[in-house]
Write a structure and sequence with these properties.
By secondary structure, this protein is an alpha+beta fold. The chain folds into three domains: 1-73, DnaJ domain (Helix Hairpins, Orthogonal Bundle), CATH 1.10.287; 74-259, Chaperone, DNAj Protein, Chain A (Ribbon), CATH 2.10.230; 266-375, Urease metallochaperone UreE, N-terminal domain (HSP40/DNAj peptide-binding domain), CATH 2.60.260.20. It has nine helices and 17 strands. The protein has helices at residues 5-9, 17-31, 41-55, 58-67, 88-99, 130-135, 280-285, 345-358, 366-375, and strands spanning 122-128, 137-148, 163-165, 174-181, 184-191, 200-202, 214-225, 234-237, 253-259, 266-268, 271-279, 287-293, 296-302, 310-314, 320-321, 324-328, 331-338. It has a four-stranded mixed beta sheet. The two termini are 58 Å apart.
Length: 377
């Protein structure tokens, strides 16, 4: 990814984890491919995800601050959380360079990487309904990934057969070609094309996996969604990525959550926002109403003389705090007052009597002015 991760998220280099999370949520909503179809939005979304992946992990962030992109770069086929444990490619480069000075008496010891290789990490984007994100629960997902072939147990060989030393590289996994020049003899080392660096070739390939030792399968999983998740929350499911090769451990599955909007409720952190409309008489006289919350209908008192856009708070009816489901935010309800544009003759006469008691004029347009003054205090 080009550019600085801090610049990608629009934050300072000493930003807190909360600032990183807020910046990521804002940009993820803006550039998610499901909501932004503009050219370049998907690439921008991937950049934002990569920046958040690095900066939200204290260890990776420290490496990035010290070494830049090189400190967190993934190896070939690696995924999240990869490290520098496998330096085979780097060693091969040095081996190739220094073995080139054959005219100076240099020698080379070939190196074959034949140990276990960890499987790739996988990513899945999962949509949740509004209430699913609030209360959590179990969710069944289907994930395509590589599984160890159960016919050959990952060896890639047909049952009853095995592997033999590669005749091209004699088991080294590398081939060397010498070139003579006026400056001396130079050697070029490359991966053996016959065994692909394994040093061994399979006599008869497993018919089930074609000799790969792994097969693409779609697996059903049940994952637990904790209460209070939000857009961009990342869940790690250990050992559910691609199976490793040569007995290596499986990678992990990372599930990124995206919450669908609700027609009635909005979310503001751990608080839930909604609106309710009452008549002007209910606002003047006060009343009790059943209002809808994420927990179901709750009785709420509208105090007498409630003004338009008054916000009434229902405590502990909001979103559970992530990691502490016992503690919840509040439900904030904005009261809208419906002032009618037409009233019956009987209603007009009663309101005019009230206006007379208040000493208000009720000429043409006067009734509307009277009602307006009532709600302005």
């Amino acid at each position: 990814m080009a550019g600085d991760y801090y610049e990608t998220l629009g934050i300072s280099r000493d930003a807190s984890q909360d600032e990183i999370k807020r910046a990521y949520r804002r940009l993820a909503r803006k550039y998610h491919p499901d909501v932004n179809k503009e050219p370049g939005a998907e690439d921008r979304f991937k950049e934002v995800n990569r920046a958040h992946e690095v900066l939200s992990d204290p260890e990776m962030r420290a490496r990035y601050d010290r070494f830049g992109e090189a400190g967190v770069a993934s190896g070939a086929g690696a995924g999240y959380g990869s490290d520098f444990g496998d330096m085979g490619g780097f060693a091969d480069i040095f081996e190739t360079i220094f073995s080139g000075f054959g005219g100076m008496g240099g020698t080379t010891s070939t190196r074959r990487r034949s140990g276990p290789v960890r499987g790739d990490d996988l990513r899945l984007d999962l949509k949740l309904e509004f209430r699913e994100a609030i209360f959590g629960g179990e969710k069944e997902i289907r994930i395509p990934h590589l599984e160890t072939c159960n016919v050959c147990n990952g060896t890639g060989a047909k049952p009853g057969t095995g592997a033999r030393t590669c005749p091209t590289c004699n088991g080294t996994g590398q081939v060397r070609r010498a070139t003579r020049t006026p400056f001396g003899s130079f050697a070029q080392v490359s991966v053996c094309p016959t065994c692909n660096g394994e040093g061994q070739v399979i006599e008869e390939k497993c018919e089930a996996c074609g000799g790969a030792g792994r097969k693409q399968e779609t697996k059903k999983l049940k994952i637990t969604i904790p209460p209070g998740v939000d857009n961009g929350t990342r869940l790690r499911v250990a050992r559910e990525g691609d199976a490793g090769s040569r007995g290596g451990a499986a990678g992990d599955l990372y599930v990124y959550l995206f919450v669908e909007e609700d027609a009635e409720f909005q979310r503001d952190g751990v608080n839930i926002l909604s609106e309710i409309t009452v008549s002007y008489l209910q606002a003047i006289l006060g009343c009790k109403l059943l209002v809808n919350t994420v927990d179901g209908d709750v009785e709420m008192t509208i105090p007498a003389g409630t003004q338009p856009n008054t916000v009434i708070k229902l405590e502990d009816r909001g979103v559970p705090r992530l990691g502490n489901a016992v503690s919840r935010g509040d439900h904030l309800i904005t009261v809208k007052v419906d002032i009618p544009t037409r009233i019956t003759q009987e209603e007009r006469e009663l309101l005019e009597q009230l206006a007379h008691l208040k000493g208000e004029s009720t000429g043409k347009g006067g009734l509307e002015g009277f009602l307006g003054k009532m709600f302005r205090g």
